[in-house]
Amino acid sequence: MKAKSFERGILSNYDYKKSTNKVGLAFVIVVILIMVGSMVYPILSTLFNGLKANTEVNSFPPRFLPSEWHFDNYDTGWNYIDLTQFLGNTLAIFLGNMIVTVVVLGLAAFSLSKLNVPFRKGIYFFFMITLFIPPSTYIIPNFLNLRDLGLLNSYWAFWLPAGASAFFLLLLKNFFDDIHHEMFEAARIDGASEWGSFIRIALPLSIPIFSTLAIFVFSSAWNEWFWPSLVMQSDDTYPLATAIYKYVIQARRLDLNIRFAILTMVMLPPIVVFLLFQKYIMRGLQLGGVKG
Amino acid sequence: MKQQVAMGRSPVVKIGRKPGRWKKHLWGYLFLVPAAVIFVLFLWVPISKGFFYSFYHIDFVKGNDFVGFDNYKTVFKDADVWIAIKNSLYYMFLGLVMGFWVPILFAIIISEMRRFQGFVRIAAYLPNVLPAVVLYGLWRWFYDPVGPINGALTGLGTSQIAFLSDKSWSMISIVFMESWQQFGSAMLIYLAAMLSIPKDWYEAAEIDGAGIFRRIWHITLPSIRGLLMLLLVMQLISTSQGFQSQLALLDGGPNKATLTYALLIIKYATTRLDYGVASALGVLMFLVLGGLALLQFRLNNKGGN
User: Fold this and answer.
1) Is the Cβ–Cβ distance between A45 and A61 less than 8 Å?
2) Is B303 touching A (CB cutoff 8 A)?
3) What class has domain A81-250?
4) CATH 1.10.3720.10 fits B73-302, yes or no
5) Which ipTM score applies to this complex?
6) What is the pLDDT of residues A100-144, one digit of tens each?
7) How far is A107 from A185, CA to CA, in rounded Å?
8) Is B232 exposed, middle or buried (CB count within 10 Å of its CB: 0-12, 13-18, 19+)?
9) Which of A101, A247, B173, B281 is deepest in the core (most CB within 10 A)?
10) What is the pTM of this model?
11) For residue A256, what are the CA distances in angstroms to A60, A252, B32, B150, B291?
């Protein structure tokens, strides 16, 4: 934020100087500190619990920092379940979903936005209306449908439906709408085909929106645990989140410190991605402010 | 539902009769084909099948049997259904009482921060990037009888609370956990809207003698009214379908206290293997939520999307 935008907000400089407001201001600062603390404390305690000895995690009342640092917990955690396998599965799901999103929804959004097809309003409506159908109402028929199609226990059960996202289509179409028509007219005059202008102009220009989508797709591939647990039926295909749910969260005889070490390993990648790509994520939030 | 599918596709057929136009827009339609096929196959077909299956007894081995309204009769006779509806309403209500106003309040405060605003925003959003499974593991420990919250309570000299196993606390604990996680994203959405309010409005109000709270009440809140309504409806839609935390942390217990309607659908399918009744429950939910969804649609359009 630029300093300039803070010339005033709800409060003016005069309000800040008024002594009667000083108490309120101090109170607000305390409230913010408490908020920040309560947001960060649980995350840090996950991290630190993963570094304690098991007896220390179980001691009451709990302490925040470990008294001795057990980095070997990570080693034990890593070998507790085949994390590399599950990580690979998650990445496979992410990559496939991303490719389908780019190709299928990219093409459709491009056509709806730039190719002037007749009845495109009606077609667009046919896609958008699905945004308003609550997914839980057809979650079981959806499962039965995948079963009928013979897609259970295969990555196609994720990859293909990844193209059925009205929300992503909306974001892409809005993005293409902002690209000038002239650019495509010029390409057409120079003899480019529709396919050519999609590949050579539309795709390269839409790298920012695809980065935003990539973050959405990544976070859902990383987070989703319930749906994959229905659709996938073996360790070879479980994504990371489902495996963690089955073997760590539901485990009865797993030491708490190891449990937290594993959870920390699962939690760190999204946090790192978030801190690195903050800008895109914040923009994605504004774009998707109205996501269901 | 089937009809809508046909409506969406009919243009293709019509164009076919005019060869000139057909050719001109060939690529345009070709580009739409993959998306249309996928939407039909993975959204419209399952949605229609839901209605269809709700009249059938589903058996993977022997094949499906038409049973008329039997599934619906089962639903209305099942006492769990009423418990689940009550729990879902309670869950939606708690979400509003405990979660809805907090982001608005903090957005107002943070929009006034002149320093460290970026840092506070990041901190507020951080829980949002935690994967759900980490959230469950973390908060199960937090709520544990020997966890940090009860540790603090003991330190203060009050008695301990069984956050998860006490019937009257379990739903509250789940809503608190979810509000903690989702707080940041709603806050950032409000914040963006508040920062775009013209500053001269406040200036004018101040000159006219409006105090801080009256400025918030008469300028800030009315300016975000549309967004507020939209997020309210969206929260209702999403909480009415909530089941994952309830399933992961408590499996609907203790004594069905966190058995929400959506969780009941899942249970019918996964533990009782009665997919017909699960579909019927879904259809009923669809009919009720349809009204809410229409409202969201209208708000969305008004919001100038």
Assistant:
1) no
2) yes
3) mainly alpha
4) yes
5) 0.85
6) 999 999 999 998 888 888 888 888 888 988 888 888 889 999 999
7) 18
8) middle
9) B281
10) 0.85
11) 14, 10, 51, 17, 46
